[in-house]
Amino acid sequence: MFTSNMQVQGLQLIIKILLSTFSKTYFNVANINALDFTVKIDNLQRAKFVEKTYSDKLLSSQVLLEIDQFSFTSNNITYGVVGEQMNYWKFFPTQSGYGIIPAWGLANVVISNHPDVQVGQRFYGYYPMSSHLLVTINNVSSKGFVDNTEHRQALPPIYNFYTNTEQDPTFTPETEKLISIFRPLFVTSFLIDDHLEEQNFYKASQILITSASSKTAQALAFLLAHRKKENALNLNLVGLTSKKNMEFVRQLGWYDQTISYDSIAQLNSNEKFVVIDFAGNHNTQFQLQTLLNKNLVYNCLVGLVDWQNLEGENSLPKKGEFFFAPAHAEKRQKEWGVSGFQQKIGIAWQEFMDAIQSTISIKEHIGVQELEKLYSDMLNGKVDPKNGNIVSLNKMNKRS
User: Fold this and answer.
1) How many CB atoms lie within 10 A of CB 366?
2) How far is the C-alpha of 296 from the C-alpha of 205, rounded, in Å?
3) pLDDT, tens digit, for every residue of 280-295?
4) Among 115, 212, 232, 292, which residue is least crowded by beta carbons within 10 Å?
5) What Rg value do the Cα atoms of the chain yield, rounded?
6) Closest C-alpha among 281, 323, 263 to residue 299
7) Can you list the domains of the chain with their CATH numbers?
8) 222 — pLDDT class (breaks 50, 70, 90)
9) Cross-strand bridge partners of residue 358
10) Edge-to-edge strand order for the sheet containing 296-301?
11) What is the DSSP secondary structure assignment for residue 89, as one 8-state letter?
């Protein structure tokens, strides 16, 4: 009988432990361990993971999101390079001297203390390179919500809205990764294309795009090629790229001419040029400005793909004009209305999606080590332009 009672008590203890573990795992009555990927603000080559803990006891209107995946493109490197000047470090503050590079991706609600946001819902938006994000909900609708966390209130609104994927028919298992990779970049390209059209292309006949293989450049080339065809425009689209990416850029079929950086002298300097610069290379800018001189009628500075060569020995003859997409987006939203703005982008986006799927190969990077390697490769320009890179810190134990 004694043995039997001991067995029963032991079994009861085991059941109690199992129930406790189950409840902590599935009913969120335990703290959540999280990871942030942080980089040294004054030395992007230095990066480290920081562990932290979220309490399951959230304040009113707070929601904890588990980040399922985020895209990583050269655009994220630009965020890091200009993080101080453009306030990108302010979105997701971390330890002093370090920053978290923002990224676009998808996350699922794991804990909610807001009546209109439910556990299990999935949202697309601007996330840290992390495993989780705690937000404070405001302006909830069927389409999504705004993160009203205090430190984000003064930042551009376009970055603070999170889209409910259940209410957006473009989000499917087949398109989610493409959306994470291209949609935020596509909006920038859409706004540049729109600006050029509004300015009658500055009466130029040549549109030159540097870093022509980059994702944002691809989207812009597509839009310009489409506009040129639809309106029979007398424009020559020139893709400037490295020798190793020449064939890839040609095969896209959107550029009329593809040249390498060491062939800049071949450009016809008697024609008027618009330059859209995604590279940020000082020496390339010097060559273009010197060669084209007064025929460089608009020098649009967008990205910093070649971030390690932002300075050079020669002073630039003249500066370019930085293109800040959120300001242009706000201008158009006021003129067209938010729904009109979204509708115009939606139509163009669907056309681009149909065209881009055959040119890209999705590559997933799961866990800490794979993110570290991808980050290093991206910093040093070793990423194949054919790949679309998706990262997850929450699938380390979920590989098939």
Assistant:
1) 18
2) 11
3) 999 999 999 999 999 9
4) 232
5) 24
6) 323
7) 32-168+360-392 (3.90.180.10), 182-327 (3.40.50.720)
8) very high
9) none
10) 257-260, 236-241, 206-209, 273-277, 296-301, 321-322
11) G
